[in-house]
Amino acid sequence: MSAPAPFEIGIFTFGELTRDAHGNPLDAATRTRDILEWARVADQAGLDVFGVGEHHREDFAVSSPAVVLAAAAAQTKNIRLTSTVTVLSSADPVRVFEDFSTLDLISGGRAEITAGRGAYVESFPLFGQQLERYDEYFDDRLELLLRIRDENPLTWQGSTRAPLKDAGVWPRPVQPTLPVWAAVGGTPSSAERAGRLGLPLYLAILGAPERFRSLAQLYRRAAEAASREPGRIGVTSHFYVEQTSQGAKNTFFPHYSSYIEQNMPRAGRLDRASFEAWSAPDGALFAGSPAEIVDKILWEHEILGHTRFLAQVGLGGLSQSATLRSIELLATEVLPAVRVALSSS
User: Domain named Luciferase-like: which ranges (predicted)?
Assistant: First the structure.
């Protein structure tokens, strides 16, 4: 029996263009250069995963994760490259598979897809789709993506795009099976679907981590009911680390408050007391010293049993130097400590 894979830690970004500390909006070209440097540093420092997500808005720099990841692939050697997420509801699964299969060739077998429905709906009118068919699009296209991954050629007929008959989809990836993860923001039906399909699962934890315990349990039960082996669980969270807890919080608070105001307006204005509560040991926000980050990852592991943690970095116009220091600490102090703790448990 082979030993279990080690716990993985990585970083990701949506490439948001939050205003910087002087109130100036970040431009997309600068943000894209920053993102590629994050990938290089994460790879060199020994992190496991690098991801970028998809938006089609003026306040985000990334609309095509596969293109950005391909650029990162050319500048990295070992780190896995994933979308976080690919908005599959408004994408053509044939093109998605072709793009990520090409990324797999460029990167030497390091590509992954994270399929999700997306937190925003701007892509639907942009691509001429009907918003009221939101769920239908995702179910139909996820089925097709998995069929393309597992069969070639394939014959398929659904309800949201033209059928395929004995169609070959090329190129094929280096990996025998291109990994497809499912992204879940907190909806039980999404967790159940991922389990039923046997897909590894990301939980985007933006509220109290404890409430995601039931989703992890539902996911595993659904997999077992479908006679499938439950896949891996990953966790994604907002993140910043410095050597000292107070230093991390003092640096990060104004940036994170700006990020919440622009990107999560329904959460309301984030004051310092709320920030401290969110970053408490049982809160969703990872902001503190390396030891605090380690303890929180291990606590969530006890609740969820996850084996991958992705930190969302560079939030709220945080400086490039601070972001890079945070990435390096995640790799050099947090990752080794987590692996040691879990290997001895």
Answer: 10-300
Q: List alpha helices for the chain, DSSP H.
A: 28-45, 65-73, 93-107, 123-126, 134-150, 188-197, 213-225, 245-263, 272-278, 290-304, 320-329, 335-343
- Classified as helix, coil or strand, 163 is coil
Dihedral sign, Cα of residue 318, residue 335, residue 118, residue 29: positive
Q: Where are the domains of the chain?
A: 8-343
The CA distance from 72 to 287, in Å, is: 26
> What average pLDDT does range 122-147 have in this prediction?
93
Q: Which two tokens stand for residue 157?
A: 């007929």
Report the C-alpha gap between 165 and 163 in whole angstroms.
7
CA pseudo-torsion sign 184, 8, 329, 278: positive
Distinct helix (H) and strand (E) counts, the chain: 12, 12
Domain range 8-343, CATH class: alpha beta
Give CA–CA dist 260/327, Å, rounded.
21
Q: Is the CB of residue 114 less than 8 Å from the CB of residue 14? A: no
Say whether pLDDT at 25 is over 70: yes
Q: What pLDDT digit, counting tens, does each position of 47-72 carry?
A: 999 999 999 999 999 999 999 999 99
DSSP state of 212: G
Within 10 angstroms of residue 257's Cβ, the number of other Cβ atoms is 17
pTM for this model (two decimals): 0.96
Return the closest-CA partner of residue 205 out of 114, 306, 122, 288: 306
Q: Which range has highest mean pLDDT (205-209, 256-260, 297-301, 341-345)?
A: 297-301
Amino acid symbol at 217? Q
CA atoms within 13 A on the CB side of 336: 7
The pLDDT of residue 3 is above 70: no
Quick one: how far is CA 21 from the chain centroid? 26
